[in-house]
Amino acid sequence: MNGSPHIPDWLGVLASVVLVGIAIGVSMRARLGLTKELVVAAARAFAQLLAVGAVLTVLFTRAGLIGALAWVAGMVVVAGFVASGRARALPRARTIAWIAVGTGTAVTVGVLLAVGVIEPVPSVVVPVGGMVVSGAMTAAIVTMRRLAEVAQEQRADIEARLALGLTSEDAMAPHLRRSVTVALLPAIDSTKVVGLIALPGAMTGLILAGVEPIVAVRYQIVVMYMLLAAASVSAIVASRLCRRALFDDADRLRRLPGGSPRM
Amino acid sequence: MSIPRRDWAIVRPPDRLTTMALAEAFTFEGVVLVRDGRRILDGVSDHVHRGETTAVVGPSGSGKSTFLRLLNRFEDPTEGVILLDGQPLSSYEVHALRRRVGLVAQRPTMLAETIVQEVRVGRPDLEDAAVVRLLERVALPDVRLGDPTSTLSGGEQQRVALARTLALDPEVLLLDEPTSSLDDISAQAVDRIIRSLVDDGLTAVLVSHDLSRVVHVADSVLVLHQGRLVERGRPGEVRYLS
To answer: What is the pTM of this model?
Structure first.
């Protein structure tokens, strides 16, 4: 298994265009009307990955740890835009997403670096940071969307609790617990079945790069644990911030766009 | 602001004439509420008297539910002020205010699995005996504390929600269309309970779109139309847009 990794050269990449041709052929034959979409998708993937590859090459050779962390911070910013776009009804959604994803990422990557699990070099910090940001973002999106729905659909329940003199924190407690649970279930489930259903990305990459599977699993175990941490921290932070954003200073549930007004 | 607490079992019902003579519980001074550019309430000035049942009636969209929601600060006026015992509502700590001014919604949401848990939502420290007393107070003497709330009828849920609010020892009860979704027998039972609570010294404010539903229980009636207070009087006196 050791030795030089078997990675296709540019001629091989060119040959793989045949596969896009097969997809286009299927689309045309079945009259799916997806030919243009397939061509655009294939071209975009080529251009985007080429650009990312070039940027990462420069980053890995010249940026150092600070540059790598700045890159991860940039990913957090982008993740915040994506997450807030999925929960537009929520007040201060972008700030919530940034803080939640940023905290989940900072805690997880910080612990990994602090205890020496990962090397403080860009070629490790950037890809690991990317996975962490992605996991934190998914958890933040699920939490934020769920709580925005709760605020609209469970208004009667929440107001019944507030009318009994409960604080917004107490009135929302069952909903916050449920939202965070829902956000964490995918990370927990994929941790439970890892390796049984499909070989996960990091491990697959290492095996393709020529690393012994028994060595590759060490990395994958760390990846699964860090994704659990990133999702947990991100979901908890997002839920707390959402709760604050959903209520005003008199502990009233705000009306969100799309909610039904009362007369 | 300290909140006086009472216990249903030990407080002797006050003399009704004495409570009637007491001053206003709530005072509305030029209250305007604008939402989404629309004046939901438009310059309402009036009083809600202590120890009375005040019914707020009006057609759909008249602002009557908003009137109720102003009293426990689920809404705040855009203009004007609402006073409770002479002090602006906003000067009270809001959670203490909501325990003092209890709201029962039109279609009560059950928040717990069993009846005893339901009554304890706002008062987790309540003992079983106190829960039983509260259920007797709302004419549900035969239910079992461990029964699931999901099997209760609409009228029974309404009364359990009332018991849940009474567990807070409120001074004022706000009732949003308390009998509109109930059959006549259940509605009469709820009316009797409201009447007896007010006889025991509580102040009740109830909202209804139907004057005939409140005429037997109300001491005074406020009529709202398009956000304005258009009439006030004893139940037999108001014409309610006739």
So the answer is: 0.82
